[in-house]
Amino acid sequence: MILVTGGTGLIGSHLLFRLISNGNNVRSNYRTQASIEKVRKVFGYYTDNPSALVEKIDWVQADITELGGLDKLFDGIEQVYHCAALISFDPKDFKLLERTNVEGTANMVNLSIKNGVKKLCYVSSIAAIGASVKQKETTEENEWNEARATVYGITKYEAELEVWRGSQEGLDIVVVNPGVVIGPGFWKSGSGSFFTYASKGKNYFIPGGTGFVTVTDVVNAMTLLIDSNIRTEGYILVNQNMTYKELFDKIAPNLGVSPPTKKVSKFMIECFWRWDWVRSNIFGKRRKLSKAVAKGLFNKEDYSSEKIKSVLDFEFEDLDKAIEFCCDRFTEK
């Protein structure tokens, strides 16, 4: 049997669909019934009878940070896909990020070792990869620099250390570091917010850029890696490096609106993150833009996926077609 943590998220739900469609026996944890309905919605993008597949999953209510209730997840498990994580760039959430991303991952690693799991695939992030030097493409070999990282990136890096520690204790592992993951179903968070923003015909776009990858490519890479003889390796998963302007130029026409044409100025960003700090610390509001994130918006980081291409002869799907598919699903929602 296969265990998928974080199965109610973007990557996890698409991974569940792949595994169940291929006839695998799969277990996944969940926190609320409402989260399972999100999975059913995602399945509905790809099949006319999503409920039939959702009901084939062995759902277990469990929180990866609550060690006492996790043993039931591992009965009969041979492979683990650890997708569960908290995404936040608010410095106030650092302790919660550490608990979920670092301690939660340590729990998964320790229980995998205890229960004789054959292999674990951990979903990390390009946020846990060291920044480029002299504008060269970022690779898996880049040196980590915590001073330039967000609180989210720091905890994902620390979570990776737990996974590597597990490999030293006899657990076969692989790690994937996806870029910004493009896929349908979660329109108010993550990459889904780009589609929501573009649909409103907004005028402004943020500067800078990063690496993007489709959720299908991430799932393909994960399943290939966990079923391979590869172990104790990490792989960047980036289909295309783009500016945010280039991304909106691809999304907007598919939604029947004009793409944004005005770049948010450095002055506006510097003012906003400072005002955001004030509203957060004085009025208790949730941070929307931290200083670290604001600084990163001025840069365009380019990532190399040559390692996975060479090892698996991996081919990424057409990003433009994937964006078109997402736009169609967004329009239908």
UniProtKB/TrEMBL annotation:
<protein>
    <submittedName>
        <fullName>NAD-dependent epimerase/dehydratase family protein</fullName>
    </submittedName>
</protein>
<dbReference type="GO" id="GO:0005737">
    <property type="term" value="C:cytoplasm"/>
</dbReference>
<feature type="domain" description="NAD-dependent epimerase/dehydratase">
    <location>
        <begin position="2"/>
        <end position="228"/>
    </location>
</feature>
<dbReference type="InterPro" id="IPR051783">
    <property type="entry name" value="NAD(P)-dependent_oxidoreduct"/>
</dbReference>
<dbReference type="Pfam" id="PF01370">
    <property type="entry name" value="Epimerase"/>
</dbReference>
<dbReference type="InterPro" id="IPR036291">
    <property type="entry name" value="NAD(P)-bd_dom_sf"/>
</dbReference>
<dbReference type="InterPro" id="IPR001509">
    <property type="entry name" value="Epimerase_deHydtase"/>
</dbReference>
<dbReference type="GO" id="GO:0004029">
    <property type="term" value="F:aldehyde dehydrogenase (NAD+) activity"/>
</dbReference>
